[in-house]
Amino acid sequence: MTVQYRHLPAPAAAAPVPWRLGMRRGLAGRCPACGKGALFRGYVKQHPNCPHCGLDLLAYRADDAPAYFTILFVGHILVAAMLTVEMAYHPSTTLHLVLWLPLTILLTLALLPRVKGALIGLQWALKVRS
After folding, report:
1. At residue 45, does pLDDT exceed 90?
2. Sequence ranges of the domains in the chain
């Protein structure tokens, strides 16, 4: 007696989400799923759910990673700029302080929510939930 096996079609796999799309939407401060709803309700405070599509945004936690990457980016940008200015013009220490301290603060404040949004978008695209 031979056993016949019935071939079932393979289950349809969910289409992979391009990670760049999720990061780009998060970088813009938008929901990574729909790209229309706001990701944040404050400076870096996430909405519990997307106001447009209802995606559970609190399932994607960035924790300390945005601060780490922001420090990394700001440090690389400003150290290169500081060294270039120092080598070219040799300004006084006071001028360095007046120029670089406000620039460091402004660049950090500008990048932090964007980096957090990009990391949340990356987690959404890679289906990493907390």
Report:
1. yes
2. 19-125
CA 24 distance to own-chain centroid: 8
For the stretch 8-40, pLDDT in tens is 565 555 677 899 999 999 999 999 999 999 999
Q: pLDDT digit string (tens) for 49-89?
A: 999 999 999 999 999 999 999 999 999 999 999 999 999 99
**What φ, ψ does residue 34 adopt, rounded to 5°?**
-105, -25
3-state secondary structure the chain: CCCCCCCCCCCCCCCCCCHHHHHHHHHCCECCCCCCCECECCCCCECCECCCCCCEHHHCCCCCHHHHHHHHHHHHHHHHHHHHHHHHHCCCHHHHHHHHHHHHHHHHHHHHHHHHHHHHHHHHHCCCCC
